[in-house]
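Appendix B, example 12.
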Amino acid sequence: MRTLALPLVAVVLACLVPSAAAAAASQGQRDVLVVSNNWAGTADLIDPHTFKRLARIDVIPDKAKRIAQIERNPSAKAVFDFVRENIGEGHNQYVDDGFTSTNGRYVYFSRPSFADVVAIDLKTRRIAWRVKVDGYRSDHMALSPDGRRLLVSASTANNVNVIDTRRGRIVARFPSGDQPHENNYSKDGKRIFHASIGTVYGPTDDPSEDATKGERVFEIVDARTYEVKRSIVMGPKLAEFGRPDMSSAVRPMAIAPGERFVYFQLSFFFGIVQYDLRADKVVAVLDLPLGAAAGLDRTEYLLDSAHHGLAMNPKGTKLCVAGTMSKYAAIVTRQPFELQRTVNVGDVPYWSQSSKDGKYCFVSVAGEDRVSVISWKSAREVARIRVGDHPQRMRAGTVRAALLR
């Protein structure tokens, strides 16, 4: 009887304690993939199971007001024009990153050209709050696990702003290197993994000119005090591993379960670096094929990006690569650390995001205004989703189903 009791208790408890997905469903929430269409100033909310578009959000309803405000400020106007011509390829960067709120009512967006972050109310489709970031450009974000804090990289201020999502105001900051970029929270929300990328829009792209890129650091930050606990310069670490003359600019990253290992991309590099945070050293470097970039001069890489987009499946067994200049997506296994398959997806794949259920990796194909859906299991493309002009960042979240009607 004792041997039957424990399984019976487990079954009862499983029925009483719903999963996170079941809890969200009971609150009327549904899964979405937030696709930020950089040049269009819109965001598409995609059903990650059926691949159908559920809604399109206008992220810049205040466009005329913001541009008029910028026009009155010569310094802001100079940066606005510079961003358009040197970073946006002749286009204003209206929306970069987007996260859904934990209650499913709002979506938070960074708007680089407007140097701000806004919360769009899905019920009214209006701006609930707007926060002007330090300096003249906003970039990548991260949302804390409890949904109360939103990080946004303030590109020209060389710091990261911490926004209280309930009040819509900056409540803290922490320092970065030149051009702060990627942000990630630890699973428990106690640590922040941050990286700066330096100057990526200048003409000095030869390895001998690396010093002109500025300060590029990978940081581990206390998410309560915002004190930088560790600051790592990756170039020397790679040289110690036997790979000299590589950039220190950490681009997209993926944190493995247990958070001992971090995988990341670098400026100018076609591949992935594996770093052991406990041992404080590079433990592996995986070179990936050049693909369509074969023969291309590095001065032609998009903002120094050889590859830009890295996601890990929920089990932590595989990585999904957006091969920006290579025009492919790639599935890589962690053990062994090797390429499983590349999939030709089109022009400028620029971000990767796993579905929450671990079935698919979504890769934004910025040059073709669509998202490629890659099966984690088969490492093959299973669908293509049409989205807005120049999709870049994508995030998995949940929203109230009633607000999508």
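The chain has one domain: 30-404. Confidence is low (pLDDT under 50) at residues 1-23.
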